[in-house]
Amino acid sequence: MGTLELKIPPPAVTALVAGMMWGISKVTPPLDVPGVIRVVVAVLFVLTGACISLAGVVAFRREKTTINPMKPETTSALITSGIYRFSRNPMYVGILFALLAWAVYLSSAWAMIGPVAFVLYINRFQIEPEERVLAGMFGAVYSDYKSAVRRWL
C-alpha cells in the first residue's frame, strides 16, 4: 500500500474522484432540488474552496517554498501563519469544497461518496507521508504546530 504514497498528484486524484462522482450520479436517482438552488450552493462552495486554496498558495509563494505536493522534502519553510493558523492543509480543504460543490451540482446523495473517498485517500497517501517528512525536517516546531492546528478544518 505504501507504493501509492506521494505517487498520484492531488489534482489527478481530484479528477478521478470527480469522474467517479459523475458516473455514480448517472446510475443513481437524483435528489429533487431545484436547479437554481443547486447552482447557487455549488458556486458558493467552489468560491469558498478557491479562496481557501488560493490563500494557501499565496502563503507558500510569499515564503518562497514549494507547492509541489509530490516532493515535500523540497520544502524550505514551515508556514504557520495566515490560513495555516486554521488548517494545516488549506489547499486540500479547497479541493474538498470543490468536490462538495460538484456533488451538490450533480444533485446526487450517492456522489457524496466522492468527497469521503478523497479525504480518506489524501489522508493516507498524501498527508501522512508529507507529515513524516515535515516532522523530520522541522522536529519539535512541527510537532507543536501539528498539535495546535487541525489537519483539515
**Judging from the principal axes of the Cα atoms, what is the shape?**
globular
Question: Fraction of residues in helices?
Answer: 55-70%
Instruction: Provide the number of structural domains.
Output: 1
Supply Rg: 17 Å
Number of strands: 0
Give a topology summary.
Layout: H1 10-27, H2 35-62, H3 90-106, H4 113-148
Overview of the structural elements:
With 153 residues, the protein is mainly alpha-helical. Helix content is 65%, strand content 0%. The chain has one domain (20-67, 75-148). 26% of the residues are buried.
Kindly list the characteristics that best describe this protein.
mainly alpha, 4 helices, 65% helix, 0% strand
What's a concise summary of this model?
The protein has four helices and no strands. It has 153 residues and is mainly alpha-helical.
